[in-house]
Every structure is written in C-alpha cells, then in structure tokens.
Amino acid sequence: xxxxxxxxxxxxxxxxxxxxxxxxxxxxxxxxxxxxxxxxxxxxxxxxxxxxxxxxxxxxxxxxxxxxxxxxxxxxxxxxxxxxxxxxxxxxxxxxxxxxxxxxxxxxxxxxxxxxxxxxxxxxxxxxxxxxxxxxxxxxxxxxxxxxxxxxxxxxxxxxxxxxxxxxxxxxxxxxxxxxxxxxxxxxxxxxxx
Length: 194
Description:
Blueprint: H1 2-8, E1 19-23, H2 28-36, E2 43-47, H3 52-58, E3 65-68, H4 75-81, E4 87-91, E5 103-105, H5 108-120, E6 127-128, E7 134-135, E8 141-142, H6 145-153, E9 158-159, H7 166-174, E10 179-184, E11 187-192
Parallel strand pairs: 1-2, 1-3, 3-4, 4-5
Antiparallel strand pairs: 6-7, 7-8, 9-11, 10-11
Helix pairs in contact: 6-7
C-alpha cells in the first residue's frame, strides 16, 4: 500500500500547469516521456488504467494532452473526452472509444517527437509558454486551456462541442488575432478569418 501512495504523491495534486497524462500498465510511458520532453513546458503525469480518472481530474481544468498505450479506458474518461478540449496521442492501436482526433503512432520515438514538436511549434504566431498559457505575437501572454489544446491538435483539430472553446475565442479576439475556433463536422480547428 505504501508503494501505491508514494507513486501517487504529486500525481494527484490538483493544479493548472500544462499536464500530459500518460496512461500505461506499468508507468513506463510516463517515465520515457519525462526523459524526452522539456520539463519547463509540460508536466508528465503517470496514470494506470485503474486510476486514470483521478489523475485526469487533478488536471485543472483538464489535461492538455492524453497519451497512452492501453486497450481500454474508464467510462468516466471517455465521457469527458467527448466534451473537454483535450488533444490525444496513442502508441499503437487506440481503444475504440477514443475521439476521432486521436493521433496514433507506431513507435515511442514517433509519438515523443510529435509531442516535442507540438511543444515547440508555432500556430498563427502563437507558441506554448513555459508551464502554462500561450505566448502571443508581440510578446504578450494569455491563459486559455482550450487554446493550448487547439495549438497541440493543429491542424487536425479536436472533436468537442464548439462552446468548449469560448475562452479560446475570447483570448484570440482580445489579442487581435485573425484566427478563430470553427467547427466542421463536429471537429473544432483554428481557422483564419476572412
């Protein structure tokens, strides 16, 4: 029992830092991603199939990215993924209940390189800021978890209801960017305004 409590120490602390939740049977995916990804840009949280809902709930307001290599997920998590703007990457074949925007990779290296590229990428002049938020063109910063998720999922987008992206819309308008979340076929993407 002490091993379980010790492993969870810190993982279940509720905070607003940009969190990647890695779900795998023995925790090997989280360990490997921690070694690969820059700690100043993302916190990697370890989850096992049985405690994924608790780890997911510790990420406020939700995880930035969900990665995994398991065959099934808790119903509570799959229900949340239908509404929360969370990017999803999977190693190997994904569970059938994952959203359509899930990106699948055949090797750990491909998955880790993709996540690293997303962490350092730029979309319409925006970049992910260290720890939390988005660095906007002109040097200002903004906090919007849905906007961070859209940057992570660009250009594929996220299968979630458009109202889930209200703060992204407000943030983009407040900073005068000519891009907005738009829904097409149930998938929300960042689209240039005309």
